[in-house]
Amino acid sequence: MCGFAGVFSRSSQGENDPAARVGRMAAMLIHRGPDDGGTWVDAEAGVAFGFRRLAIIDLSELGHQPMHSATRRFTIMFNGEVYNFAELRVELERSGSTFRGHSDTEVILAAFERWGVQAATRRFIGMFAIALWDHRERTLSLIRDRLGIKPLFVSAHKGEILFGSELKAIVADRSFDRELDQDSLTAYLRYLYVPAPRTIYRHAVKLLPGHILTIANPARPLPQAEPYWSAEDAAQHGLANPIQGSDQEVIAEGERLLADAVGMRMIADVPLGALLSGGIDSSIVVALMQRASSRPVKTYSVAFREKEYNEAPHARKIAEYLGTDHTEVTLTGDAALGVVPQLAGIFDEPHADTSQIPAYLICGVARKEVTVALTGDGADEVWGGYNRYSYGERMLERMLRVPRPARRLVAAGIGTMSSDSWDRAYEAITPVLPARLRQRMPGDKLHKFGRLMGSESAALMYRSLVSGWQHPEHLVPGGREPTTGVDRVMQGSAPSRLLDKMMLADQLTYLPDDQLAKVDRVSMAVSLEVRVPLIDHRLVEFSWTLPATMKVRNGRGKWLLREVLYRHVPKELIERPKQGLSVPIDQWLRGPLREWAEALLEDGRVRREGTLDAAVVQRAWQGLLAGRGEGALGLWAVLMFQAWRERWTT
Q: If 0-12 CB within 10 Å is exposed, 13-18 middle and 19+ buried, where does residue 588 land?
């Protein structure tokens, strides 16, 4: 895993020393690559590369980047891993290619020379962001992996191109214009992340997953990036060609593909482990790792003192059953207080997924012993794991049959009590409820139900489910929400089934822009490479061939993953209500994080800055202090924006 930055410019503006320029940009990424660094400049072409390396495969100097191809037609910077590089190397050697070292970077270059850029990229299995200079065509190609596991940012402004693995590398260049994008801020406050291709800055974009952007003239507007793979195409093809076979045959095929994906990601020349929450996703990864390993796999989990958030006992039982070498660390509000001030530096555009806190902590613990860790991230979006998918199947369409005045009345009634009040009422009747009706965080779920009842369409209901602020335009004067992948998919005609629409929308937006961005930033902040086998693109394509009942069955998601896991771990160790890696953010904001939050939300400060409506912010903050926990995520988004502004714009 690595980080890179670069400049492509045909003008004479900027510094006279382009190597120093990209060196400074790349220095902002040293956490992504503490082992080695390098620069390369073609002054005549106006292109300069700066690189930081985290050595994983071929630790020798032969893995140094930027790297030139054998014929010196191509120069590359590569962040990520191509897991099938050994197979590709054998095929290339049979065709006459020769190699000096054994890195996947050298194989990638040979593949480009032999098959061409787009054809070669389609053959790669892995996670990658690539910057490639073609000396013959004098073009810069920027390439991002299919699912968006690895990030790649681009700025085209004032006649030149800046690009990098993180925004902080681009921001480090003196020529970059840091103008805030109000519309992106509005979208962020709804979704808790900035939806691609936008960034928080007006003059920078994210390269979309599965795309190749080829630039011949940096003085012209960015050309259209070309897709080489898309989740939409995978969905369309899979739904049109459903898998045939019995449940047991499909489960066996799923296990074969899962085992292959996990096995590929165990290839490394450095110590390797896994992050284990005790849920289905990470447990199946660890089970398959342990089956393939001759020694105990190193596993790591995080514990909370707050019982309703704590999955550590489950992880411990899984680890004991599988025989892993397990480490557990406890996260308290005080520990969170120590992490929170670092978040704005780690996430160089606002990002408000609260699981960033425990994720950062557990990555730091793992990094003390390993350099690579596998996780179960991405499984929910691909295998139907979120509770909102079962809501969609069972409830959303039924709700729409209820007359809107009646739905509004129900929504208003639910809103008369806070989430905490509903929780207390629920606790009073819990002893007499059957186990199947018991719920975690019932007040929060009831408030979500109330918001759904007030929505006009299935598309708006779904958007409500994934929103931090229901009306972010009230918070950002002059801000207008841009159309996102969520809107496009949910309001479109295909896929026809609501479950498929929700999953596709998440694969296009929430997965790369929230979940994978979070995993990348917190792991790279501590120089840990995280690999995500459950979203191998072959598994994504396979999942779209499955009937809906092999994803969500009897109101429970991830049916196929569960059935595979039952072959390795007793059912009773797995079956329990879904938790996820969440934190008690409302309690923390009223407790150990209160002083920090109040400083960022101080009325005079917000008014002076002028970006957010101070009155709306204060009403939400006072409501949270009064016990209305349903405002916590929205306020966390505001706090992350305020902390980001303080770190990056002052």
A: buried
Pick the closest to residue 372 from 285, 255, 256 (CA basis). Answer: 285
User: Residue 496 class from Cβ within 10 Å (0-12 exposed, 13-18 middle, 19+ buried)?
Assistant: exposed
Distance of CA 382 to the CA centre of its chain: 13
Could you tell me whether strands 529-531 and 372-374 are parallel, antiparallel, or unpaired per DSSP bridges? Answer: parallel
Instruction: Tell me the β-bridge partners of 262.
Output: none
Q: What does R_g of the chain's alpha carbons equal in angstroms?
A: 24
Q: Beta partners for 51?
A: 4, 38
* Alpha carbons 219 and 222: distance in angstroms, whole number: 9
Cβ pair 183, 482 in contact under 8 A: yes
Tens of pLDDT, residues 134-152: 999 999 999 999 999 999 9
Please state the pTM of the whole predicted model.
0.92
Give residues with Cβ within 8 angstroms of 631, minimum separation 6.
586, 620, 623, 624
Place of tokens 């018991």: 438
Does CATH number 3.60.20.10 belong to domain 2-229?
Answer: yes
Q: Residue 633's CB: how many other CB atoms inside 10 A?
A: 19
Tens digit of each residue's pLDDT (9 = 90 or more) over 334-371:
777 788 989 999 999 999 999 999 899 899 999 999 99
**Measured in Å, how far apart are the chain's first and last C-alpha atoms?**
31
DSSP-assigned letter for residue 368? T
Q: How far is CA 584 from the centre of its chain?
A: 21
272 CA to centre of own chain:
21
One-letter amino acid of 447: H
What is the token pair recorded at 275?
A: 């992050």
Q: Which residue, among 51, 31, 29, has the nearest Cα to 41 in the 3D structure?
A: 51
Burial code (b: 16+ CB inside 10 Å, e: under 16) for 560-580 equals bbbbbbeebbeeebbeeeebe
Q: What is the C-alpha separation between 64 and 55, in angstroms, rounded?
A: 9
CA angle, 626 as apex, 623 and 627 as ends, to 5°? 95
Q: Is 278 left (phi over 0), alpha (psi -120 to 50) or beta?
A: left
* CA dist., res. 7 & res. 218, Å (int): 9
Handedness of CA 372, 374, 380, 385 (dihedral sign): negative
DSSP designation for 80: E
Q: What are the structural domain ranges in the chain? A: 2-229, 232-383+514-573
What gap in Å lies between CA 499 and CA 121, rounded to an integer? 31
* Nearest Cα to Cα of residue 345 among 579, 105, 578, 168: 168
Beta partners for 132? 76, 141
Compute how many other C-beta atoms are within 10 angstroms of the C-beta atom of residue 416. Answer: 8
3-state secondary structure at position 445: helix
DSSP assignment letter at 159: T
Distance, C-alpha 255 to centroid of its chain: 24
Q: Which 8-state DSSP code applies to residue 214?
A: E
Kindly report the backbone phi and psi dihedral angles of residue 410, in degrees, each rounded to the nearest multiple of 5, phi listed first.
Answer: -65, -45
The token duo for 376 is 């179960």
How far is the C-alpha of 371 from the C-alpha of 56, rounded, in Å? 8
The answer to whether 294 and 576 are in contact (CB under 8 A) is no
Is the pLDDT reported for residue 386 higher than 80? yes
| 83: CB partners within 8 A, 6+ apart | 125, 126, 264, 265, 267
Q: Longest C-alpha distance within the chain, in Å?
A: 78
Cβ neighbours around 116 below 10 Å, total:
11
The CATH architecture of the domain made up of 232-383+514-573 is: 3-Layer(aba) Sandwich (3.40)
Distance, in Å, from the CA atom of 225 to the CA atom of 230, rounded to the nearest integer, reads: 13
Q: For residues 187 and 468, is the Cβ–Cβ distance under 8 A?
A: no
pLDDT tier for residue 233 given thresholds of 50, 70 and 90: very high
